[in-house]
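Technical note accompanying the year-one report. For the benefit of new consortium partners, we illustrate the data format agreed upon in the data management plan: each record pairs a sequence with a structure-token string. No post-processing was applied to the example shown here.
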Amino acid sequence: MVTALVSHEACKGHVTPPGHPEQVARMDAVLGALGGMDLLRVKAPMAAEDDLLRVHPAAHLDFVRGAAPSEGFRSIDADTHMSAGTLEAAYRAAGGVVRAVDLVMSGEAGNAFAAVRPPGHHAERSTAMGFCFFGNVVVGAMHALEHHGLSRVAIVDFDVHHGNGTQDLVEDDPRILFCSSHQSPLFPGTGMAHEVGVDNVLNVPLPDGTGSKAFRDVYERVVLPRVDDFKPELLIISAGFDAHKADPLAGMMLETEDFAWVTERLCNLADTHCAGRVVSSLEGGYDLDALGAAAAAHVGVLMERSA
């Protein structure tokens, strides 16, 4: 088996205003770091309307399409902007996760990493925000449930920011377990431990300055046992690398090796419960060197496990 890398040049067409941290150079950093790896390289397709409509109402799709400018920028909020290439990039980001799910479920790949942007975990059911337009990983999870007939999908989000959008999209669906570790307080101000959905949401807020030991400990004691108890048939990772100590947008102090460690532990659970089926999708990570190094460490573990 191989690890699939799902991406598309159009993801670089989403251009943000000068100085914006979610920049085109992020894709260059990730793809450059993965350039020498022996991966099954697959182009991300445009998401099908049916896949998006499982997650977002038609009015939201209409809003995003209607907001897309033909030139220049259009601001959705103070953080979230569209350029002429954003709409295609957003459709390919969600479609890339769906394609990754299909590759893994069909056995064409042992696992897959979707190197796509814009990210998705802040996009709520009817609100684009936090650099995000569509709930990419939830689109993939719902495709796995409805198209591939699965009963249980787990989403684990180790981005430094809480995946408020993912939570909003899944908190009433017991077929999906959502686990998020994140710095708190920090944008978007959600993700408290008492937010549990229909007993399918696990939030683990961590203080500013959290380092490797505390991060690994909370995964060993809290996150991994919860995923183990859920016994998922597919594991999806929201792979944000902005908890790295070099990242400018937050204050956690993880090392590159911590992303390899958590990936390995999650792969262990996938081996136990879902024949190793793991789909990972890029979320945050804004120091370019740290982003590339952490993404390479993450994908390196996926490759070892799919070999």
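Partners are asked to follow this layout when depositing records. The CA atoms of residues 81 and 168 lie 21 Å apart.
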